[in-house]
Amino acid sequence: MAENTTPAVGEMMSPQPEQPPSGEPRLRMQGISKSFGAVRALFNVDFEVHDGEVVGLVGDNGAGKSTLIKVISGVGPADEGEIFLEGKQVQIPNPQAANRLGIETVYQDLALCDNLDVVANLFLGREERSFLRSLDEIDMEKQALNVLHSLDVKLPSTRTPVATLSGGQRQSVAVAKSILRQAKVVLLDEPTAALGVAQTRQVLNLIRRLRDQGLAVVVISHNLADVFEVVDRVIVMRLGKRVGTFDIKATTPEQIVAAITGAEFGQLMATNGTVQEAQDNDSIGGK
Fold first, then answer.
1. Residue (of 148, 144, 146, 140) closest to 169 by Cα position
2. Contacts (Cβ under 8 Å, ≥6 apart) of 172
C-alpha cells in the first residue's frame, strides 16, 4: 500500500498548535504501526496523555482512531512501536494486561448487564466475598455508594436494575466501574452518542470530574461541540497518521475540520474570497 504523503495540516496552520504539557505523560506511545494484511491502519503514530488531562481523539471514519484505542486497550496489539506507562516501558498483549496496568476502556455499547442491578454490574467478575465465602453485599454496596458519590452520580438506588436507567446514568455506571478497578487511564469511546441534551451534559460533567481526580482521560468522538466543551487538547488522525495536535483554547472548529479532511483552512478561505470577489466584479460589470 502506498505511503500517505499528505502534509501534516497541524504543522501548517496559524496559530501553531501548542506542545503537550511538560513532564512525563501518564501514557506515552512512540512509533506505533499496525497493519491488517496489505492495509496499513496505523503508520508511525505517537500519542500521549498526562495526569489530569482530557485528550480528544478525532478523525474521519477509517482514520485509525479505533485501531489506536485497540492497541492501548490490548485488543489489537501493535506490530511496531513502544508503549510507556508512567515512564516505564510496558507490553499490552491483551485486555487483561491493560486492566492490570490500570487502563480501562468504556466502549460505546457500555458492556453492562441489563438484568442486574447497579452494584452487581460494578463488581461483575470481581465480586467481594465474606470470610464464609458468600457474597459480601454490604461491603460492595458501600464501595459502590462511595465511588458514585465521588463522581456525583445520582441514581434512584444502587439496587435499581440497569435496564431502567437513562442513557446518561448507564454511561455513569460504566465509568464508575472503571474507577472501582483503580484506573489510571480511562478511554471513552463515543461517550455522548445517542444521548439527549440533559444526558449529554451529565456525561460531560462526569468527564470533568475524572480529570479533577487526576486521571488521564481519552475521549474518542465525532461530536466537535462536545470535544470543545470538555477536552484540553485535540489529536487529529487521518489515514492512519497523526496529522495535528491542538490546544483547545487556541483552536477553532474550522481548524480541526480542516485537519480531519486534509484541507488547509487558510488556503480554503483565500480561495473562497477570490471566488466571491470575481462574482462581485461580474455582477458590477453586468449592470
1. 148
2. 148, 151, 153, 155, 202, 203, 206
CA angle 59, 60, 63 (to 5 degrees): 70
The three grid cell numbers given for residue 260, joined into one nine-digit string = 480531519
Residue 111: the pLDDT is: 84
Please give the domain boundaries of the chain with CATH numbers for all domains.
11-102+187-281 (3.40.50.300), 112-183 (no CATH)
108, three cell numbers: 460505546
Q: Among 41-45, 128-132, 182-186, 251-255, whose mean pLDDT is lowest?
A: 128-132
DSSP string for residues in 205-254: HHHHHHHHTT-EEEEE-S-HHHHHHH-SEEEEEETTEEEEEEEGGG--HH
CA angle 57, 60, 61 (to 5 degrees): 105
Q: Judging by beta carbons within 10 Å of its beta carbon (0-12, 13-18, 19+), is residue 186 exposed, middle or buried?
A: buried
How far is the C-alpha of 5 from the C-alpha of 195, rounded, in Å?
38
DSSP state of 40: E
Digit-coded pLDDT (tens) for 215-245: 999 999 999 999 999 999 999 999 999 999 9
Is 80 within 8 Å of 87 (Cβ atoms)? Answer: no
Q: And the C-alpha cell for 24?
A: 512525563
Q: What are the residues facing 135 on neighbouring strands?
A: 129
Report the 10 Å Cβ neighbour count for 114. 12
Q: What is the pLDDT of residue 9?
A: 40
Distance of CA 215 to the CA centre of its chain: 13
Contact 63, 237 (CB under 8 A): yes
The tally of CA atoms less than 13 A away on the side-chain side of residue 244 is 33
Task: Specify the pLDDT at position 248.
Answer: 95
